[in-house]
Design brief:
This protein is 44% helix and 12% strand. The protein is α/β, with parallel strands linked by helices and 334 residues long.
């Protein structure tokens, strides 16, 4: 999906789709926020016919385009289902296959992965769904490699997400990838949600409450400290010492609390800081690397390539904002 003047988003509509997912897609791409610097989106409800589509709870969705419009869509988003094992209409599955053949990115929220699997689009590919549905996806679609603990993943231009709130995460990530962190952050602020979450859905699987709440409080303090000092050469040992734990114990508690390792969390935060600096400031690339805590341009470039499939210079060229970051006391401003 590429950045352009108006991005055309297709919401795939057919009987049985979840109203919550429809609402998420509509909230992210169907609200005009151009006055807040968000690009213009053209969201269309696309179905085989323009007759009302029934949903649970007596709700209906009225399509405004038929499947012919998909040829011009920049992104096709598939809501989850109320009944994950109900066969999707043949016209829906054919439309999905044609869209993928054209190279249109496809994103499925939660149980929408079952629809993609019915179309054969997930055969031999990695996919994710709600943790409580993973066993069903494996059992009914054995050619799919079901990833157990991601919030969302991509394989061959096909995105799938974990349950419910992870659909919001995926939608914001797609905005961030196509239009930059500021556009995603503006949408997230209006939705009163986090621009991005770290970790995996393993942290949301039903399990006993952690033993000591004080451990979680301590780790929250350490994460807050790290965010204020990202420009410093922090190590996992440094953070463990600040938490009053051994490195091994710190890593174990950190992973249990956040669903990711301290090192991965640090890299994610440094990437977020670097992206914001590249978008908002004119700092030279080596200075951005220093302020984001990467230490060197080479290290930052390696992480951009590994995690974002681009370089810092190309990212700035694509997502540079006209305003600059104001001075302040945070590491971002130093």
């Amino acid at each position: 999906m590429t950045s352009q003047e108006t991005t055309r988003i297709a919401l795939l509509s057919f009987p049985g789709i979840r109203a919550f997912d429809v609402s998420v897609i509509t909230e992210v791409w169907g609200v005009d926020r151009t006055d807040r610097g968000v690009p213009e989106f053209d969201l269309r409800r696309v179905a085989a016919e323009r007759t009302p589509v029934p949903m649970r709870g007596g709700l209906t969705l009225t399509p405004d385009r038929t499947f012919g419009w998909l040829a011009d869509a920049d992104l096709l988003v598939v809501p989850g289902l109320d009944d994950h094992l109900t066969p999707a209409p043949a016209q829906v599955l054919d439309a999905l296959r044609r869209a993928h053949t054209r190279g249109t990115p496809i994103a499925a929220l939660c149980g929408g992965a079952f629809t993609l699997a019915q179309a054969g689009l997930l055969d031999g590919r990695r996919a994710i769904t709600h943790w409580n549905l993973a066993h069903l996806l494996r059992a009914h679609h054995p050619l799919v490699t079901v990833v157990p603990d991601a919030l969302f993943i991509e394989d061959d231009n096909i995105w799938t997400s974990a349950g419910t709130a992870a659909g919001i995460d995926l939608c914001l990530h797609l905005v961030r990838t196509a239009h930059g962190a500021e556009a995603a952050a503006a949408i997230a602020r209006s939705m009163v949600t986090a621009p991005f979450r770290t970790g995996t859905q393993a942290q949301f699987i039903e399990q006993p409450t952690p033993r000591a709440d004080r451990d979680a409080d301590t780790l929250a303090y350490v994460r807050e400290y790290a965010l204020r000092h990202l420009d410093e050469p922090l190590t996992v040992n440094d953070l463990a010492s600040r938490a009053g734990m051994s490195p091994r114990s710190f890593a174990r508690h950190f992973s249990a609390t956040t669903g990711t390792t301290p090192q991965r969390w640090l890299i994610t935060q440094r990437l977020a800081a670097a992206r914001k600096l590249l978008e908002r400031t004119d700092h030279p690339i080596p200075e951005v690397a220093r302020r984001a805590g990467f230490g060197s341009e080479v290290t930052m470039r390696q992480h951009f390539a590994a995690h974002l499939a681009t370089s810092p210079r190309n990212y700035r060229a694509a997502f540079r904002q006209p305003q600059t970051q104001p001075a302040g006391s945070s590491p971002m401003a130093r």
